[in-house]
Design a protein that fits this description.
14% helix; 1 helix; little secondary structure; extended; 84 residues
Length: 84
Amino acid sequence: MVNGGYYKGTGSGSMGRHTKHGGYVIQNQKVRTYVVPKDLKDFKLTPFVTKNMEPLKGDFEGDPKGGLSGERYLEKWKQENGMD
C-alpha cells in the first residue's frame, strides 16, 4: 500500500503552458505526433478496427433536429430498454 507517494495520472502530459492571464499556449515541440509508415499492405499486425466496414448512417426521418433531438433519443431508449 502506498500512502500518498504514488500518483497514477492519465499519461496524457501537457501540450503547452499556462499564461499569467489565465490562457493556455500550445507549444509545438510538446505536441505528440505519430508517423505512420507508408506501405502497410504486407504488414503482419492489423488495426483493432476492420478496414472492410462501411460507415453507418443514422435514421432520422421526419425529425427536423436530426440526431440532436432529445425526444428521438428517449423514444429509441424506451423502445430498446423498456419503460423505467
